[in-house]
Amino acid sequence: MEKFRKEILKFLERHGNVDLEELGVLLGVSGAEVANEVATLEKEGIICGYHTVINWDSAGVDKVNALIEVRVTPQRNEGFDKIARRISNYREVSSVYLISGAFDLLITIEGKTLLEVSRFVSERLSPLEDIVSTSTHFILKKYKDFGTCMEVPNKDERMLVTP
Fold it and tell me: pLDDT tens for residues 117-130?
């Protein structure tokens, strides 16, 4: 991949809301060139979406997030893809990853309450025929999400003492 594309992708990954004219200045090209390249990257499926990281705790919104490890029976000629696509279609599912280790898939889900998330796992996810077992881990606090620190550091209120 040419250097120009890599630079755009690296920057957008960390700063998705950047003004394309400003990015052009940083890269030494016009904003139109950056916009054209971004449009091409979107069309090619290289840029798949844009996200804002929100600290829901600070916003006063109750949400429950969980990581679900799933052991799956892979299907002939499909491997894990068929069940992963099926799981991805649930509204509650934020992400699905094929992983190494004791489990096959790692799923992140979001709900309003612990009970809602538990019911999703027990009533909708676990009964799927290709799923052998699940292990649920509730996220109690986020310190860093998508590369963004979630806490605002406390200002040190001590007075500076000089000799």
Answer: 999 999 999 999 99
Q: How far is the C-alpha of 50 from the C-alpha of 13, rounded, in Å?
A: 9
The strand order across the sheet containing 93-98 reads 93-98, 105-111, 64-72, 131-139
Q: Which tokens in the block code for residue 68?
A: 């679900």
Domain total in the chain: 2
Query: Residue 83 maps to which CATH number?
Result: 3.30.70.920
Alpha-helical regions (H) of the chain: 3-14, 20-27, 31-43, 56-59, 81-88, 114-119
- Here the tokens at position 6 are 């890599």
Closest by CA position to 133, among listed 80, 67, 72, 66: 72
Q: What's the confidence (pLDDT) of residue 156?
A: 66
Residue 68, SS3 per DSSP: strand
Total-model pTM:
0.76
Q: How far apart are CA 153 and CA 156, in angstroms?
A: 9
Domain assignment of residue 160, yes or no: no
